[in-house]
Design a protein that fits this description.
The complex is a heterotrimer of chains A (237), B (225) and C (225). Helices cover 26% and strands 27% of the residues of chain B. In chain B, the strands form two sheets. In chain B, strands 5-6-7-3-8-9 form a six-stranded mixed beta sheet, with helices on both faces. The two termini of chain B are 29 Å apart. Classes of the chains: A mainly alpha (237), B alpha/beta (225), C mainly alpha (225).
Amino acid sequence: MKRTFPILAAVTALLLVFGTYQALVVAPTERTMGDVQRIFYYHVPSAWTAFCLFFLNLVASVIYLIRRNTSADALAVSAAETGVVFCTVVLVTGPLWARPVWGIWWTWDMRLTSTLVLWLIYVSYLLLRRFSDSAQTPVLAAVLAIFGALDVPLVYFSIWFFRTQHPQPVMGGGGSLDPRMLRVFLLNLAVFTLYGALLCWGRYRIEVMRRQVEETRALEALLDDGQAGSSPARSSR
Amino acid sequence: MTGSSNPAAIAVRGLVKQFGRFAALRGVDAEFSVGKFYVVLGDNGAGKTTLLRSLAGLAQPNRGEISILGQTPRQAASLIGYMAHPSLLYDEFSGLENLRYFAQLYGIASDEPCARAIRSVGLDPALARPVGQYSQGMRQRMSLARAILHDPGILFLDEPFSNVDVQSTRGMATLLRGMCDSGKTIFLVTHQATVLEGIADEFVWMRSGLIVARTATLTPPQENA
Amino acid sequence: MSLLSPVTRATLLKDIRLEWRSKDALNSMLFFSLLVVVIFSFSFDPNAEESRQIAPGLIWVAFLFSTVVALNQTWARELRNHALDAYRVSPASPNSLFLAKTLGNFLFVTVLEALMAPLFVVFYNLRSIGPVWQLLLIGVLGTFALVVNGTFFAALSLRTRMREIMLPVILFPVSIPAIQAMVEATHIVLTGEGTARFWIVLLLTYDVVFTTASLALFGLILNAE
């Protein structure tokens, strides 16, 4: 395990460089939107990665509620934090793309809007984790994650229907892709997923180590002031 | 090990309760017999309240087992009465109105057990004054009435005498002794143990999340060097 | 009423009676709701045609604010003297408590809406082209959507620091689809353009999904200690 992480990190770094090169240099320029369209190679893969990570958070949360093992909770918080980062990338690249192309900063299209709602749900999740006492945090957070997950399909339906009533420009999803663009897109999709998994794993390892340190400190504090309380008395007959 | 004459009212095994970095209970093992009056003593942070709340089913331990008359605390809920320093009552209601509501939680729909409980602690069921206007002594007695209205076999009391005047404290202690004599098991946490000397059957001493000694009289256990 | 368990009924009646006895929350909430309507009327010119277009949004946002302020009160009463501990220690099921609190909040918020809605109609000269019974249905489903999650999250945020701000922080994101549904449906009915059926079904689905989730998970968060 110790070797895998650095190796994977190096591989991911190389792939990211390669993917970036492909996206910014090799891929053909889009006919109508020009070079700005290249954001597409970051915008959509980031969204996909964020959704994968949030799904991972849901699975980890449910496992925690059933099994109550702390590693599941550590994974849940890691996936949530990493997911929020990628989600933020989507929300930032969206306006950066929309403004030059359509002249508006924001469009309430399906992907952007549902990403915004997911981002809000998970930021509130992280705030809940921050502001609850550490004894109950895992349970409360896991419950909120489930509520968030139940909300997602409802969010999709409501935005989808709203869009059919009030159509607006759709960002970079319509129409078929040039096969060369598709290749670069799929490459970046895979690389971003790998990158997201790596970051999540790194965060997870840090979290597990942090908890181990805390437990050790707690144990030390116990042993320090436990001079008189060495052996518990058994019950009287 | 339990004698055949006194089956365990409360049995605890390996009880661990942590609040983040702080371990309030560090592996408590003990058994407590039916029909006895136990008083738990110890400094702040010794784990007394955490132990009591875990036994009553209010706190979930991280590790270990609790058995109340052979069942988990939640299963034994109707056999448990609980009282603490706050009154656990609604200030706007009178004593009887309060008990009438809590009786519903135990499936008791009639006023009679409520009135009986109030009378047994020396208060008047007909008193219409809202509980919020009671003196502390009266309020704690009404809280005790609430705790016993469903005739539980075990009573858990967490600092019931805090801020109560000496006379009311003695009165309540005598009341509790009477209940114990008629078969209830009393498990009481307090700082002020002197009033219970001669009333309690056993004093349980806690420190740093463990039970360090159990004595029949109110003399502190010998310290280990 | 006979659909509810005795404990739910007793708890609901207890809350109504307590609220009626003190009228603290009710009076200040009624006044707060009035203030919200007035502030909105000053901020969004009622005479402008645009304001009448966005009136559904204004109304529901105003309801949302009042709901959040009201919900924070819900559990405050149970915490004051730790009366919630008395419930938790009893054999009564957590779900009965949740149901009672949700229904109580629903009634409370409906009273507030009954004050605010006519005021909005008057200030903004609102007229409904679509059927009014649909507006009532949307009102019921929408209010319930806010209240059911609001009650649950209010209980969840009991165990957090900054309790009052945590409730809206975790409630608002999850409520977004419901709020969109309420506002769109209201808009459609008021203007008579098209059918609100999809939004009403969405609201109903939302209510069913989250009531089920809340009932399934409430015990977990009530006893998380």
